[in-house]
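REQUEST ID: PR-0412
SUBMITTED BY: lab tech R.K.
PRIORITY: routine
TASK: structure prediction, single protein chain
INPUT:
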Amino acid sequence: MRLWGALVKRVWLVGLVLGLVTTGVTFWTFRQPAIYRAEVSLVIDPNPPQVLKGVSEVVDVGSGSFWSSKEYFETQYKVLKSRMVAEKVVARLGLDHDLEFLHIDPRLPPAALARALAAVDPVRMVSDAVIVTPVRESRLVMIAIEDPRPQRAADLANAVAEEYIEQNVDRRLTTTHGASAWLAEQLTDVKKRLEESDKALYQFRQDHDVLSTSMEARQNISSEKLIAINDALTKANLARVEIEARRSVLAGLLEQSKGSEFKAESFKPVADNPMIQEFRREYLKLQSERAELSEKYLEGHPKRIALDERIAKVRSDIIHAIQMVLEASESEYRQASDEEKRLRSFLEGAKQEALGVNKLELQYAQLKRERDENRQVYDLMVKRQKEVDVVGLLRTNNIRLLDPALAPTSPVRPNRPQNVALALVLGLLLGIGLVVMLELSDSTVKSQDDVERGLGLPLLGILPSIPTPDGEEIGAESTARRDLYIMENPNSSIAECARSVRTSLLFSSPDRPFKALLVASTGPREGKTTTAISVGITMAQSGSRVLLVDGDLRRPRLHRTFGVPSSAGLSTMILGEATIADAVKNTGVQGLFLLPAGPVPPNPAELLQSERFGEVVRHLCDHFDRVIFDSPPVGVVTDALVMSTRTDGVMLVLRAGATPKRAAMRGRRALWDVNAHIYGAVLNDVNLGSRAGRYYYYYRYGYYPTDYKPSNVPGAPGGRDVQKEASSSS
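STATUS: complete
OUTPUT:
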């Protein structure tokens, strides 16, 4: 409600700010040149059309993963705004000599015109003017140009799109031709290397007799030979071992056979010998005959001796035969050893031959691999060169123009209706914000809520601002006339408000009606004196004997208002130099009397603190129904605090919109500190045009005569609001 009241109070300020902002924005908007926007749409396809299926492009246009496509599109957006495209557009449209586009005055002298042309960069201007806007979830790209001339905007947009498409084709063709030239150059080198590798392979085959037999066949022959020799060697080795074992056994048996028995006869090679078998049969036969002769003849008999000689000879023949078998085994062993040695020699030769073949195979494989690789590279490059040559003949493009730009018929900015509407909204918000800022920064007492909630005091009433006639200067006469305003205008809203204050005072303490009332304020020029006079007049009009006492012994004013002398007054009564009859003056208002301040003493505070002042107050209360004291401001001197202890209560006067809340709180605290009884506060100099003033006037004083319109109510003819009460100069 407070902010709403502030808005109502300062609606003129809101209107002023609204008008200034709206006027300024409107003036600025209509002075701005009209800007037209032309747009052309392009389709950028990462996958170009495959005219020749199976033939790949030389230039990668972005096909692949999501990120590679995203990078491709971002690159194309930068290309659209590049200097390369802008240079071609400038050359195509001749913008480097278009003075209107370059914002150069054609009326300049030739020298200045040349300097101006050298200072501007038309390529940069075109590049900065290009607005690239990709369409989401599509492959469309919008290219926009904004320019004061609609046709030039369309021409620029179309030129940018066409030059971009053309440079994309040129780039692909240039890259393709460059690749073709590079392939042709590299093909010569590859062909030369292929011929050299063919010659090296042929020479190797010729040098190593590989022309008739392949290296694979030679390697197979070496392998088979090596295997055969290895098998023969194995067999010879086994035979030698067998012969050696047989010879050893036979030699041992022969040694044993030199005795009486033939140990070697049981050895199979010996037993199988036919000669030894024959000798063995004869030996056995002679042994049989010897046994027969032994039965017939004694030892020493010639037959027995002859037979023994024959047996010895046969035995000798057997041993000799066994020795011959042994010698045969020795000879066979030597042959087997020689064979084994020869085979080992053949095996070593075969191994060396196989190693030589393997070494030749490695050299041959290396030469053949180099020849095959050169052949593959040569075939690949020949194929790729043919593909590149075919691609170079095509002018396919993955970028195409969808909709060319047309000359716009209406500007895009300034949007005059929108700007004016925004100015209205902005002006209204600024005005409201300014009012709110002023209201929040205003720390003065302005309303009943400030008095009752902020100060904790009841509001006894309000006193509207007293109007000042047009052209009247502030002086003693005008001050006195405003002090007595309600006496001259008893039917005015101000008089009615004063009567309301009187009623609130009378009902503020019904069980203990006051006799002595102190009218105080927290600071000077808050209307305290005028309020005391107004309340005194209304109390006198109600039939009471009322005495107004000018308690301001420093700057008294009441005697000037009523036009009475101040030679005798409150100060002389306190000093005992005057009586009531000497000091009290008639004001001309029935029932209202005045006790002036009297001569200004040098020590007002000490004078008011004396017991004599208390006796004077009691004496005055005995002679009058109500005694109203006008005092100095509480926040300036201590006189009011001293007087508040001698009276029944205090009425605090606050000037609406002028008395600071902190000052009012300090004044209230000072009165409470001396145990003064505060009946309440009066809000003085209230503008009836404000929320608080209208509330009090229309709701509390709405029963006023219908034929009366106070001059200070908004809408009253000939009236005006007076925010400052010149007469309040306590």
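NOTES: Residues 302-392 form the longest helix (91 residues).
REVIEWED BY: pending
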